[in-house]
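Duplicate of #3305? Posting structure anyway:
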């Protein structure tokens, strides 16, 4: 009886080891696959962080270049005649100038009718200063971007 029990226990242990080996093989393969994916993702994150840093530096440089100094905005004398001549020089309609400045075409119409100095918001003054430095082609490209 003891021999049968021992033989039965040995057989159960052998079958259990074989089944466990199959399961462990799958687990090892999955672990290897996961480790490779994690390593690949880490590499990609490093590359993306580097690109993000470079883009941040470029964007700050562009902001410094395109944003006129605040004192220039205060000194800038904006009149209806100046806006009208700028629009004519660029060959655009009032609605298009409004899109570029972030205001309505009706606002541009009202500004052009006034004879005195205009009081505009800082964002509008900044946009106006930027547009004054552009040429016709640049303005057309900007309008195409805006739609």
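Output from current build:
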């Amino acid at each position: 009886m003891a021999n049968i029990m021992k033989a039965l226990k040995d057989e159960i242990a052998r079958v259990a080891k074989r089944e466990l080996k199959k399961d462990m093989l799958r687990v090892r393969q999955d672990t290897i696959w996961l480790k490779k994916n994690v390593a690949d993702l880490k590499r990609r994150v490093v590359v993306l962080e580097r690109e993000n840093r470079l883009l941040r530096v470029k964007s700050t440089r562009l902001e410094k270049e395109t944003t006129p100094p605040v004192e220039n905005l205060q000194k800038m004398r904006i009149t209806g005649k100046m806006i009208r001549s700028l629009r004519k020089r660029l060959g655009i309609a009032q609605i298009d100038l409004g899109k570029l400045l972030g205001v309505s075409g009706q606002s541009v119409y009202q500004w052009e009718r006034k004879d005195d100095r205009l009081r505009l918001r800082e964002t509008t003054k900044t946009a106006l200063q930027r547009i004054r430095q552009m040429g016709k082609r640049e303005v057309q490209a900007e309008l195409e971007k805006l739609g």
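Confirmed duplicate; merging threads. The chain has a mean pLDDT of 88. The two ends are 91 Å apart (CA to CA).
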